[in-house]
Design brief:
Elements (H helix, E strand, L loop, with lengths): L7 H13 L2 H8 L3 H15 L4 E4 L2 E4 L1 H26 L6 E7 L1 H18 L3 E7 L13 E4 L8 E16 H6 L12 E3 L7 H9 L7 E3 L2 H10 L3 E5 H6 L8 E4 L8 E9 L6 H17 L1
Parallel strand pairs: 3-4, 3-5, 7-8
Antiparallel strand pairs: 1-2, 5-11, 6-9, 6-10, 6-11
Helix pairs in contact: 1-2, 1-3, 1-4, 5-10
Length: about 300
């Protein structure tokens, strides 16, 4: 890009074409003539110095330059929307949707219950939880906030908090009672991941310390694994801090199995956000609530 100043009015048009995937659809939504919109987009491309859209018979797709511009334009839209709401309502109470990406266990045990507390205090904030094993791309706007098990490597991302926990073996109390008094790792029926997540840390660690490792139950869904564990199917490797956090709730039926999982049995959780949106009121409020909840787990 050639470094020319970009106007917010032009970026709004750029976002409209991206969201509608066509110039004609964006023109209708903006109540502009298509020739006018085409001219404005062409002027923006001239300022950028590269084409932003690839025009096709069935619509318009972002070019590589358009993909690079998209996160910044979306960030400006967030700020503009937040400012308009604050001016309109004469209020600085946060509102709007906040998308939180988190591993399934954290999403279920921490983020979902926390959403109730946020809802009571900030009824205009909507939490959208994106639960999954994959790490979503915050630079591309796939989520606003990410709770992840690996630290951010990109300089545009900021780690707002982190927490570490020893990993322990847990099972249904009746299952633990039926085990030998000092069970060996190979004497325990383990619950683990199914494809396509066979290479996750838990599966790899169990494979490394148990010869001919064969789990008794597998699933590609973490919550299904926990349900099997609580039902007494077998044992799971779980974060000690998360177990203590939920020990009086749904996890009260579980008990620790005293076995040595080795020095590598340590997990971490990082609270990550993109620098361009970390100070938006709704984002800051949610991250502060998450930090407060993480403090309870320590």
């Amino acid at each position: 890009m050639n470094g020319a100043d970009l106007r917010w009015d032009d970026l709004k048009l750029f976002l409209a074409v991206y969201e509608h995937a066509s110039l004609s659809g964006a023109a209708r939504a903006l109540k502009l003539g298509q020739p006018t919109l085409s001219r404005r987009i062409a002027e923006l491309e001239g300022a950028v110095g590269e084409p932003l859209f690839e025009r096709k018979s069935h619509g318009a797709m972002l070019t590589a330059a358009g993909m690079r511009l998209l996160p910044a334009a979306q960030g400006m839209a967030e700020w503009a929307s937040e400012g308009e709401r604050n001016i309109r309502k004469q209020s600085f109470l946060p509102e709007g949707k906040v998308r939180v990406a988190a591993p399934p266990g954290i999403a279920y045990e921490l983020v979902a219950p926390l959403s109730l507390k946020i809802r009571k205090q900030y009824p205009q904030v909507q939490i959208e939880v994106l639960s999954g094993v994959e790490v979503l791309n915050l630079k591309r706007g796939e989520a606003d906030i990410s709770l992840r098990t690996t630290p951010p490597a990109d300089a545009e991302l900021v780690c707002l908090d982190e927490i570490t926990s020893s990993m322990r073996a847990y099972a249904n109390k009746q299952y633990v009672k039926a085990l030998p008094r000092k069970p060996k790792l190979g004497e325990i029926g383990w619950i683990s991941w199914a494809a396509p997540y066979l290479d996750l840390q838990v599966s790899n660690e169990l494979s490394a310390i148990i010869s001919d490792f064969r789990p008794v139950f597998t699933s590609d869904d973490y919550n299904v694994q926990v349900a099997a564990c609580k039902a007494g199917v077998g044992a799971m490797i779980l974060p000690e801090l998360l177990y203590r956090y939920n020990a009086l709730g749904e996890w009260s039926s579980l008990q620790e199995i005293k076995v040595d999982l080795g020095p590598a049995a340590v997990g971490a959780l990082y609270l990550v956000c993109h620098k361009r949106i970390q100070n938006l009121p709704k984002i800051r409020m949610v991250t502060e609530c998450i930090v407060h909840e993480l403090d309870k787990m320590r």
